[in-house]
UniProtKB/TrEMBL annotation:
It comes from Suricata suricatta. The chain crosses the membrane at residues 22-50, 57-77, 97-119, 139-161, 199-224, 236-252, 272-291. It holds the Pfam family 7tm_4. InterPro entries: GPCR_Rhodpsn, GPCR_Rhodpsn_7TM, Olfact_rcpt. Putative odorant or sperm cell receptor. Keywords: Cell membrane, G-protein coupled receptor, Membrane, Olfaction, Receptor, Sensory transduction, Transducer, Transmembrane, Transmembrane helix. Belongs to the G-protein coupled receptor 1 family. This is Olfactory receptor. It is found in: Cell membrane.
């Protein structure tokens, strides 16, 4: 009975910030990053919506990436900030499940979407004449829908399992959000089978897409080297290097965290790595895509001039 009451009561999130001036500094920094991520991703979505020159498959996928990042960081930071400000680190059993579900859905969907964006660049550079057919509006919609659906199915399976295992140890989760592997350390049963499923799902949604992205960009770089136009080569290289930067920031810490066995993981290291793919990446994506993309900067100038004239 005691175990069941503990499970139904909820959990405590130990958080990211230490109770010191350093913790306050980190809190202010995270809030600034959060606000920048909100502004940057919302601006990117609105810009792509308003400027007709950006109504292409590449920017359609990019707008979805911004939407995912917007929801991604909003799933984590507001609760973390509330815990720090009010000192109430508790989270209900259902609340923990909801946060875990949205986090895993968005994480899986973004991993697959980045692979779709790599395929888009691969077709555009290696098969430019086939691009309108291979990357039609219907194909883009299927890619985006598939990313959301696959992410949701994977998330649902993990969340349901996490909510149905018995917890009989401390209810303090040593993390700043309800990360399922961190929750499993509190379970009073052997979870090696589930840990194996985490490895498999991470391989399918993160490792395989990353291998596909690497292979496609190998072909892309080969095609770029064979281009006769210097301007075309510079534009292609700029677009691809931008996407590779985003991919590296997202996939590397995520894969390193979830593909390691529990014996090699530490809570502190997991929290530091989680900051990269839950907080920093959603903030950096719109900055990287805007500053290194002449088309986005041009669209920003056109929309700004239009707004000023009105």
């Amino acid at each position: 009975m005691e175990n069941n009451n503990q499970t139904l009561t909820g959990f405590f999130l130990l958080g990211l910030f230490p109770p010191s001036r350093i913790g306050l500094f980190l809190f202010i920094l995270i809030i600034l990053i959060f606000l920048m991520a909100l502004f940057g991703n919302m601006s990117m979505i609105i810009l792509i919506l308003l400027d007709t020159r950006l109504h292409t498959p590449m920017y359609f996928l990019l707008s979805q990436l911004s939407l995912m990042d917007l929801n991604y960081i909003s799933t984590i930071v507001p609760k973390m900030a509330s815990d720090y400000l009010f000192g109430n680190k508790s989270i209900s059993y259902i609340g923990c499940g909801v946060q875990s579900f949205f986090f895993l859905t968005l994480a899986g969907a973004e991993g697959l979407l980045l692979a779709s964006m790599a395929y888009d660049r691969y077709v555009a550079i290696c098969f430019p004449l086939h691009y309108p057919i291979r990357m039609s509006k219907k194909v883009c919609v299927l890619m985006i829908t598939g990313s959301w659906v696959m992410g949701s199915i994977n998330s649902c399976a993990h969340t349901v399992y996490a909510l149905h295992i018995p917890y009989c140890r401390s209810r303090s989760i040593n993390h700043f959000f309800c990360d399922v592997p961190a929750m499993l350390t509190l379970a009073c049963m052997d979870t090696w089978v589930y840990e194996y499923t985490v490895f498999v799902s991470t391989t399918l949604l993160i490792a395989f897409p990353f291998i596909g992205i690497t292979c496609s960009y190998g072909r892309v770089l080969y095609a770029i080297c064979r281009m006769h136009s210097t301007e075309g080569r510079k534009k292609a290289y700029s677009t691809c290097s931008t996407h590779l930067t985003v991919v590296t920031f997202y996939y590397a810490p995520f894969a390193y965290t979830y593909l390691r066995p529990r014996s090699l993981r530490s809570p502190t290291e997991d929290k530091i790595l989680a900051v990269f793919y839950t907080i920093l990446t959603p903030m950096l994506n719109p900055i990287i895509y805007s500053l290194r993309n002449k088309e986005v900067m041009g669209a920003l100038r056109r929309v700004t001039q239009r707004a000023c004239s009105l």
